[in-house]
Amino acid sequence: MSEENRQKLTVGALKILAAASELFYQRGITAVGVDTIAVHSGVTKRTLYDRFGSKDALVVAYLQHRHDDWWARWHARIADAPRPRALTAFDSYAEDAHPSGRGCAFLNAAAELPPSHPGFAVVRDHKQEVRDRLHALIAEDGNGAPSAVAEHVFLLLEGAVAHQGIDGSGARLATARRLAAQLLS
Amino acid sequence: MSEENRQKLTVGALKILAAASELFYQRGITAVGVDTIAVHSGVTKRTLYDRFGSKDALVVAYLQHRHDDWWARWHARIADAPRPRALTAFDSYAEDAHPSGRGCAFLNAAAELPPSHPGFAVVRDHKQEVRDRLHALIAEDGNGAPSAVAEHVFLLLEGAVAHQGIDGSGARLATARRLAAQLLS
DNA sequence: TCGATAGTACACTGATCTGTGAAGTCGGGA
DNA sequence: TCCCGACTTCACAGATCAGTGTACTATCGA
Predict the structure, then answer these.
(1) Residue B12: pLDDT band with limits 50, 70, 90
(2) Cis amide linkage into residue B84, ω under 30° from 0
(3) Spatial distance from the CA of B46 to the C1' of D7 (Å)
């Protein structure tokens, strides 16, 4: 579905999305104006508004875009991952942030957007899906109490991911992965 | 030291700091202008600039102010806390965010500030101090491998705290506290 | 060849942003 | 009495904010 959505996007829209993705992530959503995005994507502001309608809608598209990418990466990894496969989530987030040092785009967005913003729901859904998949994988790979363990692993993951943007490195993510591996063995 | 600093502040500066603390936390740092802060504190913009010099400096004062409050709360709790005392950190963060649902002010600030912003270092120092104290408490309260356990507890804490702002509740913080208690027993 | 779609160029609105300059008010301490 | 520090009032600068209106061009499929 998300693939089809992406196919429908015009060349201009794709350039805008690419620039927005880079700028929103690096400098923050509120801090980046639509003019800046238009200039960086080599497209006029008029085109940006013709394609997306408003800055808020562009923000939603940006988050959805990153969510789709994240999922694609997760699926690619999961295909031939060793057990316990839940650990691939740590790799997916490490790859998502690398090498900017700005941490998790979703947590960052949630931190600066008001809860009423339509993009906020995208973040919530993304994290909910991560939690669900984690739970499913842990259950499938055979664990005594998948619910409790999944929540535990999720917290380790998110704690590390939150600090990726503060440390500017993936070191803590590696530590968290090790601790999660211990839990899952 | 921070107490002395606070004594020096004039009435106007205190009102500004109170308003800034509320507004920056609720709506985000970039999203709130100095005019808004001036109006909400019942003080002119001129006074604001006379006291703090710039918005960036006010942001630093805001974060330092929250850090001082956080520490005061922590110390008040730790005095007669049952063992393992490391668990008080979970209560301190729950109280810090309550009842706004906006989560951790420090993580939120780090998410929207550029790493070059002087306020970013305040966040980093705050989290480093939390980590250090956690480690010290866990060591004092007698644990086999304080370093590994402290890091584990810290990750649980931060994962929960990061999602406090997304869930809009302290439920996950309570779960994390329970898991940490298990670890420390 | 026609018409739709995608995009450019560019001026413009009205609001808001951080920050400053200059002059004046007021109370408390030396 | 005189002065200083805290604060007000208000106008202003120059930039940037999101978003719009209008007119034009290039491409492509039916």
Answers:
(1) confident
(2) yes
(3) 9
